[in-house]
Automatic annotation (TrEMBL):
It comes from Streptomyces filamentosus (Streptomyces roseosporus). This is Integral membrane protein. The chain crosses the membrane at residues 21-40, 52-73, 85-105, 111-133. Keywords: Membrane, Transmembrane, Transmembrane helix.
Length: 138
């Protein structure tokens, strides 16, 4: 990914600001997803064909994860190791989502569409964060 494209996406040419903005975007999206899973686990479980108890647990986890990512984004210079951990967690989430879809979930059509879209979004956050971190540590 080119520096110019990253700068355009982050609307800044400052590498540390790019890292922080991509972390903040991740925190907002992940937090919204987590809250939705936690607060509407029953209806969303029915819509996606996923056990509501599992969605509740995932929602609580995602909300806590988002809070940690938001805190990291609020730091003037997020530590590289912590950003790498967020990138790794995002990649793991994306892979496990697809494995769960193939191995044990029995989703509805909506769940069959949502799961790979969510995995792709999270993998996209990981790519943006990793690329911005590399630019910031040069």
């Amino acid at each position: 990914m080119s520096q110019a494209l990253l700068a355009g996406l982050a609307r800044t040419t400052q590498p540390q600001s790019m890292v922080r903005r991509f972390l903040a975007l991740d925190a907002v999206v992940t937090g919204a997803n987590g809250l939705a899973y936690a607060l509407a686990s029953g209806p969303l479980g029915d819509l996606l064909g996923v056990d509501s108890a599992l969605l509740l647990e995932l929602g609580l986890f995602l909300t806590a994860f988002a809070a940690g990512v938001a805190w990291l984004a609020s730091r003037p210079q997020p530590p590289a190791l912590a950003v790498k951990l967020v990138v790794d967690a995002n990649l793991l989430w994306a892979v496990l989502s697809l494995v769960a879809l193939a191995a044990w979930l029995d989703p509805t059509t909506a769940g069959l569409v949502w799961t790979p879209v969510q995995a792709g979004t999270v993998a996209g956050f990981a790519l943006l964060q990793w690329t911005a971190l590399r630019a910031a540590t040069r």
